[in-house]
Amino acid sequence: MTPDPPPSIYQAPKCFVTYGTLGHVDSNQGSRSRKPWANLSKMGFIQKVDLIMSQDHANIVQEKLDYILSPSYSRVTMTLGQILEKDFFTDYVKTGSVLMMSQGRKAVDDVFTLEYGSLNMYLGKESYERAGLVGKTYGAKGNRKLKPRWVVTYDLKSHSMLHGKKGFDRLVYACHHVFAKPLTWILTTASGKGKFSTTPQPVNKVPCSTIRCEHLKTSDIALRVDRSIVSSEDRLALESVATDLYEWLSLVRLGSTRIMKHDRIDAYLSRYESPEARSGSMEICLMSWQGLVSSEWLYQLAMGVMTSLPQGAWFSLAATELSSSVSGASKEVVLLRPDSPSDEYLLWELQSLE
After folding, report:
1. Is 187 exposed, middle or buried (0-12, 13-18, 19+ CB in 10 A)?
2. Could you give the strand order of the β-sheet that contains 315-321, starting from the edge strand earlier in sequence?
3. Are 118 and 155 in contact (CB under 8 A)?
4. Could you mention a single GO BP entry for this protein (predicted)?
5. What is the DSSP letter of 236?
6. Integer Cα distance of 300 and 27 in angstroms
7. Which residue, 9, 72, 45, is CA-closest to 323?
8. 95-106, pLDDT tens digit by residue?
């Protein structure tokens, strides 16, 4: 008899679904304080962006993308202390206009991230005690046979974070005596265009690769939420529709043959069926970018696509963060504007809860 596997020490990722209306969309006065724009703007270190739309509107979007510079990022080898020195600290760190992440795994290594002026240091027990900095425990709690981890956070944009201040000098001392080992970093500006005027060392600029621009012929499905579900406030029906649509969009992003119009496979191997498949087929376009992408570039992309497409044209925009948890799970946001004349949207948020 095979024993049951031990229970996971981490909670399974949660998926939150939001259905709402967009209202008036203005690329110059877009509100970042309400959904779905707030969710896109709060994304951290984004590693992949997928844009799905009808092939009929691909040329319109491509013309808009010509005005939006492709995202890029850079690689540089430097110590943590060099971030706090001279022009780079003044021009980028103090202004909160840079995203940086060091090499390593947060579960086992000392990893440092700099996100819009906020420095996060993910440390093991030995490094934490040697540094003498004040932090808090991080990751799974309790007696789970795991080595303890700590996270130390500094708001480097604060007026107290200057040379000569006690707290800042303590951080500088720790950087020079405990975290003096050079590390490989990836970094980009807040705009996502990766243009640096001053850097501690020459950087190796890397363009975010457009890994795919595919045209797929799929089953013609209804990418919308039925009005009767909304009017009756049927939460179970909305959950079912949202699950089916998210699954279909995920298979498109993976390039799965299961969503193709003429796909034939034995039901014993796969029982998947496209939701509400209608007669005929539709051609879709999938554009993908991979690398280090900022939330500002993602926001500009969403606004550009939203304002360039005609009313009632559907599209989906998905963004996946680099893993930010000890368990290795990633945060993901998927936005869908249905093929409906009304300004509706569906938003999926996948979060790892520890």
Report:
1. buried
2. 14-21, 344-351, 332-337, 315-321, 46-54, 278-293, 209-220
3. yes
4. endonucleolytic cleavage in ITS1 to separate SSU-rRNA from 5.8S rRNA and LSU-rRNA from tricistronic rRNA transcript (SSU-rRNA, 5.8S rRNA, LSU-rRNA)
5. H
6. 8
7. 45
8. 888 899 998 888
Alpha-carbon distance of 46 to 284, in angstroms, equals 24
Say what the pTM is.
0.82
Query: Can you point out the beta strands (E) in 144-263?
Result: 149-155, 183-189, 204-207, 209-220
Beta bridge partners of 217: 283
Rounded alpha-carbon distances, angstroms, from residue 314 to 25, 57, 71, 192, 224? 15, 9, 24, 26, 9
* Contact predicate 48/288, CB 8 Å: yes
Burial of 35 (0-12, 13-18, 19+ CB in 10 A): middle
Q: Is the Cα torsion angle 91, 167, 122, 352 positive or negative in sign?
A: negative
Which band of pLDDT confidence, cut at 50, 70 and 90, is reported for residue 35? Answer: confident
How confident is residue 230, by pLDDT bands cut at 50, 70 and 90? low
pLDDT at site 212? 47
- Helix segments in 68-226, DSSP class H: 80-83, 86-88, 125-131, 166-177
Whose tokens are 């034995």? That residue is 266
Which of 2-11, 61-70, 82-91, 277-286 has maximum average pLDDT?
82-91
